[in-house]
């Protein structure tokens, strides 16, 4: 991209963040006219594009779509998720990914060698895993641990937010989560399923990260959120002991 | 005898004061309160979620379950806690009034549970429940083509009125029942009916008039529901 | 998602340092609010919030024949309906054993305190007495339902009035201004939760899910200058994760001592709320 294009994109993104978005309700007419296309969460009825979900209206390049504010996590292939092992079978583990979908991690999808005779010695009931979605099938989701950054979580805090708020917590190109990491000194992994792992040098810093994340989730479509987050972090900065 | 001036002074097409609020049960996936005058209903939605027992699963789409319940002290003569034939039927018609707008094909084998509690009752409870449930379902992010609004209309004496109170439901002339209660629900955008019940005598032309008046009232109710949803921070 | 072992570890670790995630002290309650008259068909009704936990209680009166063994006394029944509206953990159907346990814990606290003067509920000896029914419904469960429910029940009783009685029939929907015959023995229920080696009051959902056992104590204060506290009822019970670990007598002693001290704070909140209600009326 050319320098001028980059600048234009950046200022457009800045503007986007500061534009108050409109909340729409199911059945509400979003835009009228054939020039527009119905995106996610919308449908066309005659000349109108109508909302099929409660959320924020986004119109970009003639595409009208709804950004959901609520609702369960819909698993997608390639998503990084954090889940809890709820059962151990003869060839893998059943994982709760905080969604109305069963998830299964086959032993064959682990990065190390797993003895078929003693699966639970590798991962056991109650363990928390950072995994990736391999495939989404009608009966459930298949996970893998064979990729960079996927591992069992040993210590820290696990918190959950609505999965629809995850993009705000991560930010454009990870800008928001990096701000959080730098300010709190914590390692933070945000699962697309709304489950988040925080690991810091002490509980106080982990709690600061948790509070800030909750604050972002509650104000996900407020204008100038990045500045508000910076203010919040400054205000609650932990004094050196 | 004409029933011109209503017992509480309202116009014949005027619903009682409406109050709605979204998000009153933080633990639920979606929740709302809806109030017509003295009648207060709250609704909470949990789902889509796994359905147990498994044999109830529908591979073609998610299931909707509705539970309507009145608090024991919501009426003057205490109701023994627990389901009754009346609450079972109202749970069913509530479900039937909401199902047409829900798009649950994307959730095979899952269930969406809607729980309605009536905190205070002065007639119109099933309609208040449907109104609360409609907002709660939207709040929960369930794919919905439309909002649903409900109101009870009725014939009292020879007047057709909107949003009956208990006193109006019990209205008698010459010692005989002279009121017919007609709960109606409309899909707001399409203008179609998803609920109609009536219990009493009413001439066919008056029934048509009642439906017309109900639709107008439901549009007003829909505006309040929309406002409450949009007020969410 | 229920609490994970790693978060639980943090909660317990922090508690052992006397600290909690929301910056409260171990014995500190979240903000408590008590609203009266939330259901106008009830003879008395309240909505109690402790943090985000919300419970509604209502009192209904009816006339009935007295029980054979208490011909000059009215009667009391406390019911808890754990409505699935308030939590995904509650099921539809008849009250399960936890709803029954909660109702009976609260009932014992009220009954054994003597706050209800059952003799004054007698209308005609051997024939007609007042039956008092307290029904409790959680609206949102964010931990510590027992204390919120108990407080709502006592507040509802304290604000309840008699309905109009015509002969031997109640005119439901018509109320007098006469309050129920209550004594000054007001029971306050505190439920202590044990997290490994720490003891705390008023847990949030996560703290409840990290607990090993709980002990509820209902305490009233005898009248007089000293305001001597007296225990009315106690119950040791299990936690959401099905744990119910044993306690040492020393731990029980500590719980009793702390209960005696802390109940005054909750008592004051209730007294202030009732006083405010009197002013308004």
Topology (elements, then pairings):
The complex is a heterotrimer of chains A (241), B (233) and C (281).
Chain A: H1 3-18, E1 23-24, E2 29-32, E3 37-38, E4 42-45, E5 48-51, E6 55-60, E7 63-68, E8 80-88, E9 92-96, E10 102-106, E11 128-137, E12 140-144, E13 152-153, E14 157-160, H2 166-170, H3 175-184, E15 187-190, E16 195-199, H4 203-218, H5 225-235
Parallel strand pairs in A: 3-7, 10-12
Antiparallel strand pairs in A: 1-6, 2-5, 4-5, 6-7, 8-9, 8-11, 9-10, 11-12, 11-13, 14-16, 15-16
Helix pairs in contact in A: 4-5
Chain B: E1 18-22, E2 30-36, E3 39-50, E4 63-70, H1 85-98, E5 110-120, H2 125-139, E6 148-156, E7 159-162, H3 166-169, E8 172-173, E9 176-177, E10 179-187, E11 193-196, H4 204-230
Parallel strand pairs in B: 4-5
Antiparallel strand pairs in B: 1-2, 2-3, 3-5, 6-7, 6-10, 8-9, 10-11
Helix pairs in contact in B: 1-2, 2-4
Chain C: H1 5-16, E1 32-36, E2 44-50, E3 53-64, E4 75-80, H2 97-113, E5 122-124, E6 128-140, H3 145-159, E7 161-166, E8 169-179, E9 188-195, E10 198-201, H4 205-209, E11 213-221, E12 229-237, H5 249-280
Parallel strand pairs in C: 4-6
Antiparallel strand pairs in C: 1-2, 2-3, 3-6, 5-6, 7-8, 9-10, 9-11, 11-12
Helix pairs in contact in C: 2-3
Shape of chain C: globular
Q: Average the pLDDT over all residues of chain B and give the rounded result.
A: 94
> Separation of termini of chain B?
51 Å
The strand line-up of the biggest sheet of chain B is 1-2-3-5-4
Proportion of β residues of chain C?
Answer: 25-35%
Largest sheet of chain B: 5 strands, mixed
User: Major sheet of chain C: size, sense and barrel closure?
Assistant: 6 strands, mixed
How would you describe what is shown here?
The complex is a heterotrimer of chains A (241), B (233) and C (281). Chain A has 241 residues and is an alpha+beta fold. Chain A folds into three domains: 3-68, OB fold (Dihydrolipoamide Acetyltransferase, E2P) (Beta Barrel), CATH 2.40.50.100; 80-153, Nucleic acid-binding proteins (OB fold (Dihydrolipoamide Acetyltransferase, E2P)), CATH 2.40.50; 157-235, K Homology domain, type 1 (Ribosomal Protein S8, Chain: A, domain 1). Chain A contains five helices and 16 strands. A five-stranded mixed barrel of chain A has the order 8-9-10-12-11. A four-stranded mixed sheet of chain A has the order 1-6-7-3, with no helix packed on it. In chain A, strands 2-5-4 form a three-stranded antiparallel sheet, with no helix packed on it. In chain A, a hairpin with a 2-residue loop joins strand 6 and strand 7. In chain A, helix 4 packs antiparallel against helix 5 (225-235). The longest helix of chain A is centred in the N-terminal third of the chain and has 16 residues, at 3-18. Chain A is globular. The mean pLDDT of chain A is 89. Chain B has 233 residues and is α+β, with helices and mostly antiparallel strands. Chain B has one domain (18-230): GHMP Kinase, N-terminal domain (Ribosomal Protein S5, domain 2, 2-Layer Sandwich). Chain B contains four helices and eleven strands. Chain B has helices spanning 85-98, 125-139, 166-169, 204-230, and strands at residues 18-22, 30-36, 39-50, 63-70, 110-120, 148-156, 159-162, 172-173, 176-177, 179-187, 193-196. Chain B starts with 17 loop residues before the first strand and ends with a helix. The model of chain B has no long low-confidence stretch (mean pLDDT 94). The longest helix of chain C is centred in the C-terminal third of the chain and has 32 residues, at 249-280. By secondary structure, chain C is α+β, with helices and mostly antiparallel strands. Helix content of chain C is 29%, strand content 33%. In chain C, strands 1, 2, 3, 4, 5 and 6 form a six-stranded mixed sheet that branches. In chain C, strand 9 (188-195) and strand 10 form a beta hairpin. Classes of the chains: A alpha+beta (241), B alpha+beta (233), C alpha+beta (281). Chains in contact: A-B, A-C, B-C.
């Amino acid at each position: 991209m050319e320098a001028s294009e980059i600048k234009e994109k950046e200022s457009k993104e800045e503007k986007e963040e500061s534009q108050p978005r409109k909340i729409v309700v199911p059945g509400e007419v979003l835009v009228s006219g054939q020039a527009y296309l119905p995106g996610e969460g919308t449908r066309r009825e005659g000349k109108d594009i109508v909302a099929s979900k409660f959320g924020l209206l986004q119109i970009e390049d003639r595409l009208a779509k709804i950004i959901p504010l609520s609702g369960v996590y819909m698993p997608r292939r390639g998503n990084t998720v954090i889940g809890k092992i709820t059962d151990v079978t003869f060839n893998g583990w059943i994982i709760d990914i905080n969604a109305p979908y069963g998830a299964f991690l086959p032993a064959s999808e682990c990065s190390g060698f797993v003895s078929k005779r003693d699966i639970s010695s590798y991962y056991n009931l109650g363990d928390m895993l950072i995994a990736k979605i391999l495939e989404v099938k009608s009966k459930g989701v298949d996970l893998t641990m064979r990729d960079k950054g996927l591992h069992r979580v040993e210590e820290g805090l696990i918190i959950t937010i609505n999965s629809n708020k995850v993009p705000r917590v991560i930010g454009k190109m990870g800008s928001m989560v990096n701000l959080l990491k730098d300010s709190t000194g914590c390692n933070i992994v945000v699962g697309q399923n709304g489950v988040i792992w925080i690991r810091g040098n002490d509980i106080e810093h982990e709690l600061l990260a948790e509070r800030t994340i909750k604050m972002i989730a509650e104000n996900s479509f407020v204008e100038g959120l990045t500045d508000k987050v910076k203010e919040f972090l400054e205000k609650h900065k932990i004094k050196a002991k | 005898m004409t029933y011109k001036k209503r017992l509480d002074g309202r116009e014949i097409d005027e619903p009682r004061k409406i109050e709605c609020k979204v998000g009153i049960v933080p633990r639920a996936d979606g929740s709302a309160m809806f109030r017509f005058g003295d009648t207060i209903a709250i609704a909470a939605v949990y789902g889509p979620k796994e359905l147990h027992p498994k044999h109830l699963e529908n591979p073609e789409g998610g299931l909707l379950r509705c539970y309507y319940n009145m608090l024991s002290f919501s009426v003057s003569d205490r109701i023994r806690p627990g389901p009754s034939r009346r609450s079972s039927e109202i749970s069913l018609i509530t479900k039937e009034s909401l199902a047409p707008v829900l798009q649950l094909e994307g959730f095979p084998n899952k269930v969406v549970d809607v729980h309605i509690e009536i905190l205070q009752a002065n007639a119109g409870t099933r309609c208040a429940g449907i109104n609360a449930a409609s907002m709660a379902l939207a709040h929960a992010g369930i794919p919905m083509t439309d909002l649903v609004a409900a109101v009870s209309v009725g014939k009292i004496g020879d007047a057709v009125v909107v949003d009956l109170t208990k006193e109006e439901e019990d209205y008698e002339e010459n010692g005989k029942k002279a009121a017919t209660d007609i709960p109606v629900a409309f899909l707001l955008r399409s203008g179609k009916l998803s609920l109609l019940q009536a219990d009493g005598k009413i001439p066919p032309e008056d029934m048509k008039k009642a439906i017309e008046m109900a639709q107008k009232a439901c549009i007003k109710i829909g505006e309040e529901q929309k406002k409450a949803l949009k007020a969410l921070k | 998602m229920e609490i994970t072992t790693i978060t639980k570890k943090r909660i317990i670790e922090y508690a052992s340092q006397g600290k909690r995630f929301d910056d409260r002290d171990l014995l500190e309650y979240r903000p408590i609010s008590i609203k009266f008259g939330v259901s106008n068909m009830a003879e008395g009704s309240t909505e109690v919030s402790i943090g985000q936990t919300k419970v509604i209680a209502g009192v209904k009166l009816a006339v009935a024949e007295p029980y054979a063994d208490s011909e000059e006394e009215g009667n009391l029944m406390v019911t808890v309906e754990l409505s699935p509206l308030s939590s995904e953990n509650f099921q539809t159907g008849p009250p399960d054993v936890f709803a029954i346990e909660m109702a009976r814990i609260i009932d014992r606290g009220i009954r054994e305190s003597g706050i209800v003067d059952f003799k004054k509920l007698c209308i005609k000896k051997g024939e007609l007495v007042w039956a008092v029914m307290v029904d409790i419904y959680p609206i949102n469960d964010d931990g510590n339902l027992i204390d919120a429910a108990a407080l709502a029940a006592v507040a509802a009783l304290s604000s309840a009035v008699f309905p109009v009685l015509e002969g031997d029939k109640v005119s439901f929907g018509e109320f007098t201004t006469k309050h129920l015959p209550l004594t000054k023995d007001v029971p306050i229920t505190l439920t202590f939760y044990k997290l490994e080696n720490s003891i705390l009051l008023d847990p949030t959902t996560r703290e409840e899910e990290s607990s090993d056992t709980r002990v509820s104590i209902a305490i009233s204060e005898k009248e007089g200058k000293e305001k001597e506290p007296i225990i009315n009822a106690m119950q040791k019970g299990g936690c959401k994760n099905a744990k119910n670990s044993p306690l040492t007598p020393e731990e029980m002693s500590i719980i009793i001592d702390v209960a005696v001290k802390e109940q005054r704070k909750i008592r004051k909140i209730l007294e202030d709320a009732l006083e405010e209600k009197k002013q308004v009326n």
